[in-house]
Amino acid sequence: MTHKSKHKYAFLISAFLIATLSSCGDSGSSTNNSTSGTASGNPGIETGVEAGTTPPIQTSISFDINTDIPFPSDNPWNQDISSSPLDPNSAMYINALGTTQTLHPAFGTVWDGAPNGQAFVVVSGTQKKVPMSFYYQSDPGPYPIPADAPIQGGPNSTGDRHVIVIDKDNGLLYEIWDAHPDGSGGWNAGSGAIFNLHSNGLRPAGWTSADAAGLPIYPGLIRYQEVSVQKVIRHAIRFTADRTTSGYVYPARHFAGISDPTLPPMGMRVRLKANYDISGFSPNNKVILTAMKKYGMILADNGVSWQFSGEPSPNWDDNELHDLRRVPGSAFEVVEMGAIQR
After folding, report:
1. How many Cα atoms within 13 Å fall on the side-chain side of residue 145?
2. How far is C-alpha 293 from the geometric centre of its chain's CA atoms?
3. Residue 339 belongs to some domain of the structure
4. How far apart, in whole angstroms, are the C-alpha atoms of residue 181 and residue 155?
5. Which of 178, 245, 283, 320 is 20 to 30 Å from the Cα of 4, by its Cα?
């Protein structure tokens, strides 16, 4: 489980003034039709939704989690970076992450009595929308979150408590952080963000999301279906670092770090070195490691260094996933970045 930087709380007072949002009423039918599931563009150019507004629904544009990839094919999450130039400060950033620390899969079957990983729920376009109350920068509600939506770490979690909902009929992604049911059908949360799964739009510059980097979480999750059934991952993977600098690079929009230029910025992308030998790993782990070579990993939050994200599933083999901890930080390199925004 990852944790938000304590620096975020330093903004709490101002956040209440600009982004405490509460919606009354709802739209859509009351049918709870859900299925549990366990950019391109120039940096610095606003291509996302106007701050504090809900992205327009594109009619007749659905999203199938088993056949569609989130966002257009030229979106940063979906770009092949295996041949991209190396960042000149690659060695410095890898050293900051830890060259002897190893990969840490933050998903599997069950951990500490709760599903291990970041679960999500898929709903229809008729899912009842409920009021939302946020205490940080957020897209306003209502959101189509079922009362039984899975909370990261379980209902008693003291961690990030992310909740992720995919509206399959309208192609919209809803993500919230520090989610707590309010007892009246709505939710209280730290922050919430809505993403159009068919757009390259970004968060407003300087805005967070349900993740510290202002990025969506779902596109960076490893899912059992793609590893064991499809046998290919077609996107970058979300990962965390124990310390980050007070800056971000495209496609990230927000930072939660300290003023140390030797530390990695949010949005930094790493890849497994092309010459790293993966022949000794299982077929499933080869799928994961191949994706790390082709699409890499994007730094999205503060947490354990080299910890990467996936969905929980009873079908995972925890021992098999544990074998990925053989891969050291020194096996990675940083892909060339643009200017760091501070």
Report:
1. 32
2. 19
3. no
4. 9
5. 320
Asked whether the beta carbons of 76 and 250 are under 8 A apart, the reply is: yes
**Residue 283, both tokens:** 């077929």
User: Residue 10: is its pLDDT beyond 50?
Assistant: no
> What is the bridge-based pairing of β-strands 172-177 and 191-196?
antiparallel
Contacts of 95 (CB under 8 A, 6+ apart): none
- Residue 15 tokens, joined: 């956040």
Backbone angles phi, psi at 302, to 5 degrees: -90, 140
What's the distance, CA 230 to chain centroid? 21
pLDDT per residue over 195-228, tens digit each?
999 999 999 999 999 999 999 999 999 999 999 9
Split into its structural domains, the chain has a count of: 1
Strand, coil or helix: 285: helix
Tokens matching residue 246:
């007070």
The reply to whether 178 falls in a domain is yes
Q: Please, which residues have CB within 8 angstroms of residue 237's CB and are 6 or more apart in sequence? A: 220, 221, 222, 288, 291, 292, 295, 296, 297, 298, 308, 309
**pLDDT tens per residue across span 290-338:** 999 999 999 999 999 999 999 999 999 999 999 999 999 999 999 999 9
Q: In what order do the strands lie in the sheet with 21-22?
A: 21-22, 132-134, 187-189, 180-181
Instruction: Please tell me the distance from the alpha carbon of residue 318 to that of residue 107, in angstroms, as a whole number.
Output: 9
Q: Give the domain extent around 198.
A: 6-334
Per DSSP, the residues of 22-87 read E--S--S-S---EEEE---S-TT---SPPTT-PPPP-TT----TTTPPSS-TTSGGG---TTSPBP
Retrieve residue 209's tokens.
């999301």
This prediction has a pTM of 0.84
* Token pair in block for residue 230: 């499809």
Give a yes or no: residue 340 inside a domain.
Answer: no
**20, 118, 263, 275: CA torsion to nearest 10:** -150
Q: Identify whether 188 is part of a domain.
A: yes
- Residue 108's contacts (CB-CB under 8 Å, 6 or more residues apart) are 116, 117, 312, 316, 318, 321
